[in-house]
Amino acid sequence: MKLNIVFMGTMPFASTILEMLVQAHHVTLVVTQPDRPQGRKRILTASPVKETALKHNLPVFQPESIAKHYQEILDHEPDLIVVAAYGQMIPECVLNAPKYRSINVHASLLPKYRGGAPMQRAIMNGDDETGVSIMFMVMKMDAGPILAHQSTPIHPTDDVGTIQDRLATIGGTLLIETIRKVVSGSIHSVPQDESRVSCARNIKPEEEKLDLTKSAKAIFDHVRAFHPWPVAHLLIDGNKLKIYGVAIGAREHQKNAHCGEIVCIDDQGVHVATSDGTIILKRVQFQGKSVLSIHEFMNGIGRRLLYVGKILN
C-alpha cells in the first residue's frame, strides 16, 4: 500500500531517519525549521533535514510558526505524519488530520526524558542506557501512548555525537517496522506511566560552563554530553577554553587543592582538581583559536596560560 507521508524534523537525528524513511515510503512533503544564521560569520544555513530533503528532490515547507501556518500540510492530505526532533509544538488539527494519525520518533526510553535534550541529559546524568521510543502524538510534549521502543547501552567512550548516530539508525529501522504494523492494525499502543515521567529540558547557554566543584565523573559526563556540540568550556582569566575531551585522573593528585586548581602537568595532560579527585584536560580550543590536543596547546599559547597553581573556573 502506497502511503502519502509528511515528515517533520530539523536536527541531524531527524535527517538520518528521513534518509531511511524515503528508501521505504513515499514522502510527499518535508517540514523543517527556517534557515538560521550559523557560526561566527552568521551565515544563513539550512537544517540537516532540509539538506536531506533537497538531495531527494522533496518539497520543503519552512514555517516560522507552525501554529499559524500549517495549511500546506493539510493540503497534501497525508495518510501519516512522522515527526522527529522538529522543534515546535504542532497544532492538534494537524496531528489528527492523517488517516493513521501522527507518530513521533523520540530519542529516549519514555516516559523518561520527555523534552528537547534527551540524549544530553542521559549522558550528563551518568545513565548506562538510553534508547528510542515511537508514540502516537497528543497535545502534550512526548506524552502519547507508546507504539515501540528499543534500548542501547551508553558506553564510557560515547558522547552525544555517537549516541545520536546510533539512536538515529535504531529509530529509522524501528520506524519502518512500526509504520507497517500501524497500517496493518497489528500494533497496540501502551499508555505511558505518568508516575515515571522525567523531563529533558533544552540546553541553556549557561550550562555549557563546567562546574569544577562537582565530582570528576560528573565533569567527565558533562564534557561527553556536550561533545561535539555545543561544547563545554572553562574560563581562563575571563576567556573561554572549550573542552573537547577529558579523562578522569588519580585522586591523590588532588591533595588539598582548591576545586579548579591545576595540580599537575605531565605526559597525560593538565590535571585539574575537582571535589573528589582530578580531571585531565585532553583536547581544547582557546577563544578564537583552533582545536588542539593538550600537548599541542601547551607547546604554544597554553604554556603561559596554564601552570601548576593556576585556578580555572
Short note summarizing the structure:
The chain is α/β, with parallel strands linked by helices. Helices cover 25% and strands 27% of the residues.
Key attributes of the depicted protein:
six-stranded antiparallel sheet, 313 residues, alpha/beta, 25% helix, 9 helices
Sheet with the most strands? 7 strands, mixed
Helix/strand class: alpha/beta
Overall geometry comes to elongated
**Binned strand content:** 25-35%
Low-confidence stretches: none
The pLDDT mean sits at 96
Give the C-alpha Rg: 22 Å
Strand numbers in spatial order across the main sheet: 5-2-1-6-7-8-9
Q: What is the straight-line distance between the termini?
A: 59 Å
Number of helical regions: 9
Order of helices and strands: EHEEEHEHEHEHEEHHEEEEEEHH
How many extended strands? 15
Can you tell me about this structure?
By secondary structure, the protein is of the alpha/beta class. Helices cover 25% and strands 27% of the residues. A seven-stranded mixed beta sheet has the order 5-2-1-6-7-8-9. The protein starts with a strand and ends in an 8-residue tail after the last helix. The model has no long low-confidence stretch (mean pLDDT 96).
